[in-house]
Design brief:
207 residues, alpha+beta, 5-stranded antiparallel beta sheet, 3-stranded mixed beta sheet, 5 helices, 37% helix, Iron transporter
Amino acid sequence: MAELTAPAAPVSIYAEASPNPESMKFVLNTQFLSEGVSVDYPNLEAAANSPLAQELFNFDYVGRVFIAANFVTITKTTDHQWAHLIPELRSFLKSYVEAGGPIFLVDPAAEQKAAQEEAANGSHSEQDQQTSQKIIDLLENYVRPAVEQDGGNITFKSYQDGIVTVNLQGSCSGCPSATVTLKSGIENLLKRMVPEVKEVVAEGITI
């Protein structure tokens, strides 16, 4: 009989509410990804690289899975109350991670970096590329940490003719306050720091 793998260190996990009532952030004392790297799976098909996310989609009430440095944000699709779902999800995550279950097949970090560089370099002119890089740096250093606290993420998609397009992920997708945050917070910051920016629009809002 094959020898079983020794269990990993004990995992502690707690649930933390997000501004999106349909999303819950599960924070663990273990590291899934490097700081600043995250993945967003809006459905089972998108989760091909993550056995953990695929397992979570087996729960019929799980509609979206977002994984970042040390937490998993789960968005539910049903009217079930979180009070009934949290114990089951917390128990599953704890058991899965302690057993050494695979999180990803391929580390998403390189893929995310390549996508970011492609987005910046995809701008039409050298000036636009420089502006795009400024925007990416601001999002990465000032916006992402705050958004992550709420169980989500924001990524740069494109910049053209003063219009910045971003993707909202995790709990930010479907969050009732996402549009307000986008306009009153993120757009104002970018306009102040990068005068070329006229407007910020988002993909991924499914309100």
